[in-house]
Please model this.
Amino acid sequence: MNTRFLALELRRAVRNGRYLIFTVVLPTVMFLLFINLYGGAGQRFQNGLSVTTSLMMNMALFGVIAGPLAIGARIAVERGSGWQRQLRLTPLSGAGYLFTKGALGMLVALPGIVLVSIVGAVKGVELGAGQWLGVLGTLWLGAVPFVLFGIVVGLLASADGMQAITGLASMLFGLLGGIWIPADVAPEWLQSVMKVLPTYWIKQLTEAPLVSGVDVKTALLVIGAWVVGLSVVAARRFRADSARA
Amino acid sequence: MTQATAVRTGAAVALSGLHKRFGEVRAVDGIDLVISPGEVVALLGPNGAGKSTTVDMLLGLSTPDSGEISVFGRTPREAVKAGAVSAMLQSGALLEDATVAEAVEMIAALHREPMPVQRALELAGIADLAKRKCTKISGGQTQRVRFALALVSDPDLLVLDEPTVAMDVETRRQFWQTMRAYTDTGRTVLFATHYLEEAEEYADRVVLMRTGRIVADGSVAQVRATVSGRTLRAVVPGVSRHVLAGLPGVRAAETRGDQVTLTCSDSDAALRGLLALQPATHDIEINALGLEDAFLALTGEDVR
Model:
């Protein structure tokens, strides 16, 4: 991969004001808002997780959805505007282009996670070094399905449609993933819907280093299915796109 | 010259038997073309003549249905990868969230041996726009940014697809001045245009296209000679177009009812032949053909 090109892409993405607000700052703001709302530090959920820790992880996960999703979806804009045609007149291959977007999506997911964790630590989240590493690592890797989802949207949607789709998808992934409302309080039918989404299982996995009884196997299975499924759709769509030309 | 010979003798571009159709439309219908290094060639023709389709295939942006393409002895994609060819594309906005310099820098980052970004901007005459957002510049300036994007890979062959289409007269003149400074360094240039005067003024060689085929190919003077001549208009009762087209000195014939228009290379011979064949011919009118008319006649749909 061309790291210099990636760095220039990153600069372009980071300068985007919307990225900074939604992906980096908003999760932390929501976190601060919610810990005051939910009675603050000291209280614990049924699974033994403190409210502060749980909210910190939920909000970090929220940040992991929107940013990576938006990066991939920008492919739709570059496809429509003719920039992609310009790129085809360079040594960059089509696969190289998609990998760059993928790497970019992973990179933009990082600052939001780190910021909310720092604020979390300040606000009294106490984890061991290994636990921090496990939680942060899982959160970050949790961005993979959303990066891929964004790329699929970018390859399929028009530049106009992309905005609506990413907005709706971010909301649904968050809402039905149990970020805003705990899955336990949802009716059973809704719970089965939630358990189809990657968000729910990523949330489960992030809690795995801290609590017992997490169904890691199912979590990996569901997330893996999303990753493989989205990759296949992206690859096929991309091939069809190239063949048409 | 055959494709193999052309490639062996180091042609910049060698196209042979190139075909491309979109559904029922034969966009490119059998093109053979060899361009030597250092030539500045105009690909001239009206909209829909197949210029852009040819250019796209030459750049590897689309694949021909049949035929061979060689760019400096390589496939188009290999030539692009090696930085031997680059292009200024007709369509295509720039990045809305980047400055002019950043957009050029991104393209430069992808090439193996680019020229410095600053130099590309200077050559394209937009050094003063480096820090401007790509969206905050005029149409003519945007074309110059595209020119810089094409230059930054320091290509041996530069392909321009209707480069001056969004420019006013003054900007167009400036653009070609910049362009000429570049071609003076011995680069090969192929530019598609539908402006006759651009082809006349800036190209060493003109390739005229119509409905997917090359109808004339030569130096500006040669093409001018090919297309110069006279038109003969007359009323000729009950005659077929094929008979008229077969008359001596007639290059093309057109009929509308009994009204006949002959494009002639030798109008005297054509008139003698016509009167001998059709004594009832009347209302004869002969006019000298301007280069513009001749161009239109050659590239017009109905001519055979």
